[in-house]
User: What shape does this take?
Amino acid sequence: MALARYVGGTLLSFSRYLGELAFLIAETFRGILSGHIRLRLVIHQIFEVGYRSQLVVLLTGGFTGAVFATQAFFQFHQLQMDTAVGPVVSVSMFRELGPVLCGLMVAGRVGAAMSAELGTMKVTEQLDALRALGVHPVDYLVIPRFLAMVISMPLLVTECIVVGILAGYIVTTQILGVSEVYYLYNMLHFTGGKDVAMGLIKGVVFGVIIVFVSCHKGLNAREGAVGVGRATTDAVVAGSLFILVINFFLTLTLNIFFPAAK
Amino acid sequence: MMPSHNNQEIISVDNLVQTLAGQKILRGFSLKVYEGETLVLLGRSGGGKSVFLRHLIGLMRPLEGSICVDGLNITSLKERALAPVRKSIGMLFQNGALFDSMNVADNVAFPLRESGETNEAFISQKVHDALQMVSLHGHLSKMPASLSGGMRKRAALARALINQPRFMLYDEPTAGLDPIVADSIDLLIRRLQRKLGVTSIVVTHDMKSTFTIADHVALLHEGRCYFYGTCDQLRTSTDPVIRDFVEGRSHEAP
Assistant: This one.
C-alpha cells in the first residue's frame, strides 16, 4: 500500500512537472509568435551560452575523440583492421558522442548558470519587479536564452565533433602509425550527410531541453539561498538525465530517417 | 489636514481572502481608495500588508474577492492582459528589487527602454531627473550590490516613478532610511500627489510618516480592515488596538 502510494505520488508529481514544462514551452512560443524578441538580449545570451562554452566543449570533444580512437585502434589492430578506426570514430562522434557530450557539458555549464541566475532573481523579488513593470519574465528571460541556445548548440556540437575527429585522426595516424590516406578514405566513405544531420538535430533538441529544464527550475526556485542551490542542482541533474534518456529514443526515431548502415 | 483628493473611487477591494502556507492571511479584507489621495495601510509585521499590496498589481491572485482598478476587475485578468494595468502602477518593493545585473542608470531607464524609447539623450535626461527627485544623482554607474539599503530603495523608487504612473504602491518606503532621507521621501510622496495627482497606497509602520502623508488611514488587523478613517480620527480613537499601534505598546512585562 505504502509502495503504491509512493509510486503513485511520484508519477503524479512527474506528470505535474511535465505539465509545467509544457506550459513554459507554450508561453515561450506564444511570446516569440507575438514578436516579443529582444535582439540585444539574444546576442548577449549567444555570447554567454555559445561563445563562452567553447573551451569546455572543445576540450571535451578533443580528448574524447583521442581516447576513443586509441581504444578502437587497440581492438581493431588485433583484427588487422586499423583503418576502420576512422569511420568508427567519425560516425560515433557525429551520431552520439558529439551531441551527447556537448549536451552534458552545456547542461553543466550553461544550465547551472541559467537556473542559478533566474532562481536568484526569483528569491530576491526581481522577477516580481519585472512583472510589476509590465514585462513578462518569459519574454525577457526565457526567450533570449531559448533563441541563443537554438543558434549556439549546432555550432558547439559541430566544433565538438570536428575537434574530436581531428584528435582521433592525429592520434591514430601520427602516434599509432595508421596510414593517413586509408584512414581518411575509409572515414569519408562511411560518413555522410545523414550522420551530420543526426548530430545537429540532436544538438538542437538537447539545447532546447537544457533551456526549458533550467529556466523552469530557476523560475520556480523557493526559499532563499538553499532554494537556489537546489534549483541549480536539480537543473543539472534533470537536464543531464533527460538528455541521456531522450537520446536513446531520439536515436531510434532519427535512425528511421537517417539510417546508420549504408 | 484637508483631503486633497476628489471623491471618485478609483481602487476598490472587496472581501479579499488569501492563505499562505495554510495560514489565513487575509480574511475578507475590503478597502476603497479615492482618486488622487494617499492612503496609508498600517498593520503588524507579518499581518499581510505586503501580501495585500502584491494583489493590487496582480502578483498574487486572491482565493476569493475582487479588486477593481479604475473600473477594471484585475483579479480575472491573465498575466499578459495585466501588462497595461501594471504599466499604470508603480511599485516600490520593500528591498528595492533592483535588477542586480544592471547598474543604477540602466535600472532606472529600464521601464523607458521597455516601453520602446530609443533616444538615449532623452533617456539619460529622464534618468537624471528621476534620480535628482530621490536625491541620488551621481551614482549612475554603481551596481546595486555596492549601494546601501537606503540608496537601493531610492534607486528603485526612481525606477518606479520614471514612467509617471497614475498609481504608486509603496511597501515600507521609509524603513531603514535615516530620518532626514525618510522625511524627504515623505515629502516626495506628498509632492507627487499634489503636482501629478498620483494616487498612492503606502504600507508602513512609521507613524510620523503616516501623519505627514496620509489622507486616509486603514489598519489591517487579523486579516480584516479594522479601522478606516482620517489621521485625526486615528489620533483621537480610543480603541485599545488602535491606541497600542499608534503609541507602540506591546503590554509585555519589562
User: Anything to note?
Assistant: Residues 141 and 260 of chain A are 39 Å apart (CA to CA).
